[in-house]
Amino acid sequence: MTGWWFLMLAGISEICYAAAIPKTEGFTRLWPSLYCIFFICLSMYLLALSVRTVPIGTAYAVWVGIGAIGTAIYGMTVLGEAATFAKMFCLLMITMGIVGLKFFSPAH
């Protein structure tokens, strides 16, 4: 189960860096850029730890899904992006895909 915890933390780290990208202004602002780079590295490291026990295809899909869902929610709640029914439905489908990958992923 440890690999899945690493994977969840990697996804959360991905949300942190994705949310910071606009604040870097094209990586021209030092502190937001360093924050972003730190979380990019942390996310990759945690993803690498997760694939010790989670298959890479599953891990990568789940990692991207967590990041996509979290970043979309951040955009809607903090940045005022539209929260349409269609967008929410699509995020639900991504969530269902992540749960399905977890449920059907063989343990090794």
From TrEMBL:
Topological relation to the membrane, as annotated: Multi-pass membrane protein
Keyword ATP-binding part of the UniProt annotation: no
CC annotations in GO: plasma membrane
Molecular function, one GO term: transmembrane transporter activity
Keyword Aminoacyl-tRNA synthetase: no
GO BP field: xenobiotic detoxification by transmembrane export across the plasma membrane
Bilayer-crossing regions: 30-48, 60-79, 85-104
Highest taxon listed in the record's lineage: Bacteria
InterPro entries for the chain: EmrE-like (IPR037185), Small_drug/metabolite_transptr (IPR000390), Small_multidrug_res (IPR045324)
Key words, A-Z: Cell membrane, Membrane, Transmembrane, Transmembrane helix, Transport
Pfam families: Multi_Drug_Res
Subcellular localization, as worded in the UniProt entry: Cell membrane
Membership in a protein family: Belongs to the drug/metabolite transporter (DMT) superfamily. Small multidrug resistance (SMR) (TC 2.A.7.1) family. Gdx/SugE subfamily.
Protein's UniProt name: Guanidinium exporter
Organism: Nitrincola nitratireducens
Lineage of the organism: Bacteria, Pseudomonadati, Pseudomonadota, Gammaproteobacteria, Oceanospirillales
